[in-house]
Design brief:
The structure holds two protein chains of two kinds.
Chain A (H helix, E strand, L loop, with lengths): L15 H32 L1 H11 L2 H24 L8 E2 L2 E2 L2 H25 L1
Antiparallel strand pairs in A: 1-2
Helix pairs in contact in A: 1-2, 1-3, 3-4
Chain B lengths: L1 E9 L9 E9 L5 H12 L18 E4 L2 E4 L5 H4 L4 E4 L6 E3 L2 E2 L2 H9 L19 H8 L9 H5 L1 H5 L6 H11 L7 H9 L12 H5 L6 H18 L5
Parallel strand pairs in B: 1-5
Antiparallel strand pairs in B: 1-2, 3-4, 3-5, 6-7
Helix pairs in contact in B: 7-10
The chains are: A mainly alpha, B alpha+beta.
């Protein structure tokens, strides 16, 4: 039987849902680069005070600030997408006979992340 | 009576090298679905337009098409909600087109068969019914509501890019039986779950669950089985 198979070129532009998905996937690149910059900082710290301070100066450059601002936005979006789908990755969560609704799982995850972030910021500010 | 423009992707395997768009002006009332719009075209404007349908009430799963780029059951999508149009209707994405809005679905049927979508029991208690608590039923009930309409496959870009992927509906039905307390066939199905084209072919785009007209949530079934597959892999080191 003769059939026609439609091409998949630029499939991710066909639906906004796919665009958001691709943004979630692409945000990994920014998160990886951010983590690498942090690792370089750790390495510079191990080399002594002067290299570490040069690394700090580099962080204050406009390009670095722009990158970190962008990375922050993407990290927030990336985190939100994964909290949103978290219930899908779990077996049904039950407390006694009560099945915990998906929304409660998402809200708990987001609240835990916010609490951890606040704790880290407070610790960083006070030490 | 109001009129709306329906643009159909037409393809005739004998005369067309590639699909082409054809436009129809369709009069409609507020209670007319896209399916009824297509039936108006077939009955009054162009008898050659080919499409599948049966129950007209979102239970047979035959009338799935792309409506304005989204996988939809044409029987429960209303023309009034798409007014002033135009309404672009084409065959479900990611499947080969046989003719007009009719897709070739043998690939799915093979996959459906491969997941052994039936209860497997070592022994059937004679003269007894299978007992099951409401909670045990809750574990699989939503997955049992699948009507095989294939909207989830049309939503899944991973299936579009690699048709070896077992795909959302077949994997959701696989989970439906694995999660059933009466079933004893999990070991037989795990090979399919663990395969690269099994649950690991899914990247959790999640659109399959969005478009599902029966709230089956295939993305959930697949991603729960990533945990089962991981457990299956590591636990074998502890088994003799």
């Amino acid at each position: 039987m003769k059939t026609y198979t439609r091409p998949m070129g630029a499939w991710w532009t066909r639906n906004p849902y796919y665009l958001w998905y691709m943004l979630r996937e692409a945000s990994c690149v920014f998160i990886t680069v951010y983590a690498l910059i942090l690792l370089v900082g750790l390495f510079r710290l191990s080399q002594g005070k002067a290299p570490y301070e040069r690394w700090l100066e580099g962080l204050a450059s406009p390009l670095s600030l722009l990158f970190h601002a962008l990375a922050l936005v993407l990290v927030l979006y990336h985190s939100w997408t994964w909290f949103k789908v978290m219930p899908k990755t779990l077996p049904f969560v039950r407390i006694g006979a009560w099945r915990v609704p998906d929304r409660a799982i998402v809200v708990t995850g987001v609240c835990a992340a916010v609490a951890c972030t606040v704790l880290i910021v407070v610790l960083a500010a006070t030490t | 009576m109001r009129k709306i423009e329906i643009q159909c992707l037409r393809y005739h395997p004998v005369t067309d090298a590639a699909p082409r768009w054809q436009t129809y002006e369709v009069p409609f009332t507020d209670n007319m679905s896209v399916l009824q719009g297509l039936q108006h075209v077939k009955d009054h404007l162009d008898g050659s337009l080919t499409f599948r349908w049966s129950c007209r009430m979102a239970i047979c799963g035959s009338c799935g098409v792309m409506v304005n780029g989204e996988p939809r059951l044409s029987c429960e999508t209303f023309l009034r909600d798409l007014f002033p149009g135009p309404v672009r209707v084409e065959a479900l994405n990611h499947f080969p087109i046989v003719r007009d809005l009719v897709i070739e679905q043998s690939d799915f049927l093979r996959k459906l068969e491969s997941v052994k979508p039936y209860l497997i029991r070592e022994e059937v208690p004679s003269g007894k019914t299978f007992l099951q608590t409401p909670r045990q039923m809750e574990d699989y009930y939503q997955y049992s509501k699948c009507i095989n309409c294939l909207l989830c496959y049309a939503a899944c870009p991973q299936y579009g890019l690699n048709d070896k992927f077992t795909g959302p509906a077949a994997l959701a039905l696989l989970h439906r039986y694995n999660a059933d307390s009466r079933d004893a066939g999990k070991a037989e199905r795990m090979e399919l779950v663990n395969a690269e084209d099994g649950v690991w072919g899914c990247t959790l785009v999640g659109y399959c669950s969005e478009v599902c007209p029966k709230e089956v949530d295939p993305a959930r079934a697949i991603n729960q089985n990533k945990i089962n597959s991981t457990k299956d892999y590591f636990l074998r080191f502890f088994k003799k």
